[in-house]
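[SOLVED] Need 3D model of a three-part complex

Original post:
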Amino acid sequence: MGGHSCCSKQKVKRGLWSPEEDEKLIKHITNHGHQSWSSVPRLAGLQRCGKSCRLRWVNYLRPDLKRGSFSAEEEQIIIDVHRILGNRWAQIAKHLPGRTDNEVKNFWNSCVKKKLISNGLDPKTHNLISNSHNNQRTSNINKAAPENKKSNNSIFNNLDFQPENSNAPLEIFNKNFAKLPASCTTTFSTSGSHDSTNFPNGLLMIEDTPNVYSSSTSTILNPASLENCMWDFSGEPFEGTMHEFQQKEQEITCATRIIDRVNEAKGCPETINSSFDQSSSFDFGILESVLTSDLSCCDDQSSMDYYDQFPWNF
DNA sequence: AAGGTTCGCAACCGCAAAAGC
DNA sequence: AGCTTTTGCGGTTGCGAACCT
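Solution:
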């Protein structure tokens, strides 16, 4: 028992790889590639199963891997993306060039998780642990009376939102934020390219670069249709439908009134400033990292209509 | 110094999706 | 269309190193 299901007939070596085995694998793959992992062990002269070879290559031998400890920037990206995606390590790793899903997962389990816990945050939801009852309340709201949502299905109309972790007056947020499903992420660029004095600390400026992070993050989600809409995530189909997202009841995130902000930012940044200046105690950085999306579809009235068609399920 | 405990990481396992036939 | 094989993923385990008592 305990053998690999993929190679039960062969006698295969297990456990740590020796330098000789590594060398054989590297040599074989650099010379011939890996058309089929199941045939790699035989062709490379290794007493391993294909799965083991693949894992060794992907997680350790690939030349484009970045070894060494994670930088603070990388850590922040992991936290931010995890907040949106949960334990989708492979997806998270795509935001970190040179890192593998296994590496990210190990780093999370050994380091980040503990940090979050020690900061009083639930590593699953990223919410304050003491606020978990509020989350429950929010979940119940989402479950309740779905038929009411149709009559009020604009993301900008929902005012039943209380931001986590904030000392700011509630009305500020009622005025400026709407709830979005965690899956409905929208890309903002940071305020780096702008005169940041016009914006509260951490406030996002919706702009040309559709990346939250200057590096590789690219997101977004365009629902293909209202029913069973599949979402496009980082250029690849996201694994769920809108309905599934709703069922998941992941962390509810908040967003600026996207279209209003875009329009205001284009013409009149002071409007933004004045509407946020009372809320300086709110951690806008949370928003910055959570909200990601391609706003190219949001720069006119038609895109406003576009968003308003969504079956927002608040 | 020795034994026990914790930590970090590489590797394994089982499952599901995708691909091939 | 249905079965088999392959691939990819997330959870978990096992082991060596570091740390603690």
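Edit: Strands of chain A lie at 177-180, 230-233, 236-241, 253-256.
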